[in-house]
């Protein structure tokens, strides 16, 4: 074997060892059978009668890669930005504005063309151990959650997961949007919550039964369209042998409608998470923001 081949072999071994360390398992190239264009916009206002020396604003670009989504074929943003990301595939657009005049207004509009698929792809397993651990608001290690999970344990993982989904659907009352996140334990004990509590409880019960699961935030729309604040939604996904499948108790969707779900954020509530805000985040004295 010549020197060049030795170098190539060493590089391949390094890539494979790194992939194994991160929990990646390449299976096949992902497939997509459609595309979807989404737009969303924000109005930033200096509500004071003074010059705002510096304002910062951050919002999500759709998640780089999920089982049925890839971002992006095309992105158009109306203001200069920098792109930030984390190891889960979350992407954040960061904007900075200097010397905003009194009562000044900035408009930010984002248009993204996504590749979508009607069925989830199987092409990697990503950090599965992370999605087995408890975290704030997903209290899979709490005795009450553990006991409920044990009662739902069935002979096969597929039966267990369907049983968890059915139990959440039938036992957690939807009380509409609640601003403050209350978590899985609250939903279990109070038997109520919004989409977030439904997603967190499913995730916690799945993790307590040793199935990797995660909460995802975004929007559900069948066609191209405008993303609006009131339509913001959270659902759960579980790992089925390298395929992330949807479980959305609030919308009564189990393992279906994949091309309708636009993922904006893979939820990470750990204290050291890179991004812990929901739709957007801003800083600046007197700054007000509305999502249109």
From TrEMBL:
It comes from the Bacteria. The keyword Signal applies. Residues 1-22 form the signal peptide. Pfam families: Transglut_core. The keyword Nucleus does not apply. InterPro entries: Papain-like_cys_pep_sf, Transglutaminase-like. Residues 187-251 form the Transglutaminase-like domain. Keywords: Signal. This is Transglutaminase domain-containing protein. It comes from Methylomonas defluvii.
């Amino acid at each position: 074997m010549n020197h060049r081949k030795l170098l190539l072999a060493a590089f391949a071994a390094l890539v494979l060892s790194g992939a194994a360390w991160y929990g990646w398992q390449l299976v096949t190239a992902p497939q997509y059978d459609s595309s979807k264009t989404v737009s969303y916009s924000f109005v930033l206002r200096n509500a004071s009668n003074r010059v705002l020396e510096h304002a910062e604003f951050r919002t999500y670009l759709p998640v780089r890669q999920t089982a049925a989504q890839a971002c992006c074929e095309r992105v158009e943003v109306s203001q200069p930005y920098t792109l930030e990301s984390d190891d889960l595939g979350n992407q954040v657009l960061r904007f900075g504005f200097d010397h905003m005049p009194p009562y000044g207004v900035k408009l930010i509009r984002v248009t993204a063309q996504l590749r979508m698929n009607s069925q989830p792809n199987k092409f990697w397993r990503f950090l599965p151990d992370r999605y087995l651990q408890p975290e704030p608001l997903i209290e899979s290690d709490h005795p009450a959650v553990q006991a409920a999970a044990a009662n739902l344990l069935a002979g096969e993982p597929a039966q267990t997961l369907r049983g968890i989904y059915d139990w959440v659907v039938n036992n957690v009352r939807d009380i509409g949007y609640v601003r403050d996140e209350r978590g899985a334990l609250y939903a279990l004990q109070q038997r109520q919550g919004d989409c977030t509590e439904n997603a967190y409880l499913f995730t916690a019960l799945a993790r307590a039964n040793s199935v990797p699961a995660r909460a995802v935030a975004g929007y559900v729309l069948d066609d191209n369209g405008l993303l609006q604040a009131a339509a913001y939604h959270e659902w759960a996904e579980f790992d089925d042998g390298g395929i992330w499948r949807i479980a959305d108790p609030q919308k009564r969707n189990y393992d279906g409608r994949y091309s309708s779900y636009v993922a904006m954020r893979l939820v990470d509530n750990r204290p050291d998470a890179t991004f812990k805000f929901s739709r957007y985040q801003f800083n600046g004295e007197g700054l007000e923001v509305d999502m249109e």
